[in-house]
Write a structure and sequence with these properties.
The chain is built from five helices and 54 strands. It is mainly beta and 727 residues long. A hairpin with a 5-residue loop joins strand 10 (126-131) and strand 11. Helix 4 runs antiparallel to helix 5.
Length: 727
Amino acid sequence: MKNTKGFFLFVFLLFLSVLASDIIAQTTDFWIRTKGPEAGDMYAIAFKHPYIFVATRGAGVFRSEDNGESWIEVNNGLRGNPIATIEQLVVNSNTGRIFGSSWRGIHWSDDNGDSWSCADPGFGPLGGLVINPNKVLFAVAQERVILRSSDSGDTWQACYQSIAEHAVTAIEVLSTGTLLAAVRETDSALAELSIIRSIDGGNSWLEVFRSPSTFGDNSITVQKNCFAVDPTNGSVYVGVFREGVWKSTDDGMNWSPISPFGLQLDILSVSVHPLNGDLYVGSGGIWRKRGSDPWVQIFTDPHFPFWTAPYFIEFNPFNRNIFTGIVWGGGIFRSADEGYSWVQINKGIINSDIRALAIDANDQVFAGTVNSLMFRTNDYGETWTQLHSGLYPPGILAILIHPSSGKIFASAPYQGLYQSEDHGDTWTHIDTFPNGDWVYSLISDLSNGYIYAGTGQSGVFRSTDGGGSWEQFSLENNNPVVRCLVMDSEGSIYAGTETRGVFRSDDMGRNWVSVNDGIPEGYQVGALAVSPKGYIFAGTWGAGVYRTANKGESWIRPATTLEPVHVDYLAINLEGHIFAAYSLRRSNDDGVNWEGPEFWSGMPDESISTFAIDSKGYLWAGSAGQGVYRSAESTLSDPVTLINGLIDLVKSMNFKQGISNSLDAKLENAKEALDKAAEGYRIDAINKLQAFINECLAQRGKALSEGQADQLVENTRTIIRVLENPR
């Protein structure tokens, strides 16, 4: 009996040990992926009952078992640096194998996407992919070669080679086995398009159609999803970009135009209803032609009706529902009534390309995408709300939340600025800001509320009335591209430029001087950040990270280990910990030593496109095609350590002894309160920190400069927020 009890005790302890190890293993990653934003660029779709598969740009493949109501990521074997982008998906109906083409080669899955294998046929990146009635695969390689595989992708042979300066842009197989391919001539300013045809499995090809560009340029082409076959009568359609729709009734031998005057011509996709022969065309929305009836527009993305880009229109063969994938970030839509009504079905598809992040005083996070979609989360990324009313493409470059008014400002290429006064629910264009330029950076002055905008061609703009009016100031005669702006505690503004290094203004943006002693010429300064100690850090593309302690008069390159070389983004938390990307690194000692990529576990690849840190020290990162990530834990130490850092900051400002002693005493009192564990003492510490804030405000502009006081107050308020909202 004793032995039995001992055995069960051993098993129980072993279970606890395994459980603890599992919990530790689950919490070791620095990054966790939030649950959104749910959107993205859709490239391809395939149906295999009861599953639906969609391929996205930059986030791999997603699968649905409920007709698109929800999706899960199925990328085991597709991941890498970066993840493979599948261009086309096809299913072998005999074996159930799913095939996908990408820049890596041919991918296949025999278990409904749970795992993928990959092989490189040896001809370069693959694009178009089809399978004929005999289950022979055909793929387009490097837009030059048509490949053929008769053994489920194990081996490939070239069956067509285009001549130089000719590109194979699309391929289709008819129910008869006839192959059609679009070839675009690119060796002259006036391009021509031809269609070639094979009736012997690709052994020989014949040109059956040629059309010059009627626009007088080289824009004519056929996109991958622009061939379609009418199963009711065998007619074939092809959508020609900027030229219209053409039809063949003789297996692709002869073609005639059918698109009417007025139909938008930037054609991205063509499809035919499998039962009634209705023709669907993706071109600034979806257009439908039924018999002899006129064309009718039946779908536009409700967020961006003038920018709707349906990259595919496909019918589920098992229920006739229509699915369309949008490449301007809208994700996927479904219609169950032949296109009369549509629903967006993105649940679980996280493919948004985030280009800007901003966090308000309540830790609401705003994410702007390359497609001009704006999203908001107030529950640490568990749910995201799409905000779109009033915003238009093409893209969000920067977001600013005004510290006093709470207004949100967002910039878009060629469109200047937008603003929102209702937490992003609705947006209006700021007509007083000039259009036509790109605003890469937005910052505000905590002391007076002034707003500064760094542009691509026009230097820096300033608003002194909350965005109502703007003044333009040049950095030099030929304004360089201003990639980033930052302000130090004394109110000096620094601009990082694309080709001319760093500039500084000491008079609120009116006049600028070059401050580049120590920074090599010609490198882009794409990131600037100020540390709690007052150091300014400059991240360059190709030359590492530089630091100045004297307002840019001289710079040093402090790194001794694992320095990030390519830097587009910098973020610094309240303790002075520096986070850098594109080359992913972290430094806890003012840029001297850096932790390498192993520190960034949980991020699938170096895909970070922007950074932000919230009031509790969580680091947020926007990725290029995989949504938003955040750190699993706060990057800040416990509040006592933070107060110690604040004490060091006070000492570094070299105040007169009486002021310094008074401020130190208040911070020491707050530390003593935190040493006591009871909840009441935490509140007491907050009150003592508030007393510190009150003294800073009372001495603002007197014993403390306005910038010094504002920096101390902001840092202290951050500590208070950490105490008020422990996680």
